Amino acid sequence: MKVFKKIGVLTSGGDAPGMNAAVRAVVRAALSNGVEVVGIYRGYSGLIDGDIKALDIRDVSNTINKGGTVLYSDRCPELKTPDGLAKAVETCHKFGIDGIVTIGGDGTFRGANALTKAGVPCVGIPGTIDNDITSTDNTIGFDTAMNTTLDLVDKLRDTCESHARCNVVEVMGRGAGDIALNTAIASGSTAVAIPEFDFDEEELFRKIKTSKKLGKRNFIVTVSEGMGSDYAPTLAKKIQAETGVETKFARFAHIVRGGTPTLRDRILATRMGAYAVDRLLQGKSNIVICERHDEIVARDITFALDLDALYKGVVSEGELQGYGADVVEEMKRECRERREKMAALYEIEGRLNL
Ligand code: ADP
Question: Does pTM top 0.90 for this prediction?
Answer without folding.
Answer: yes
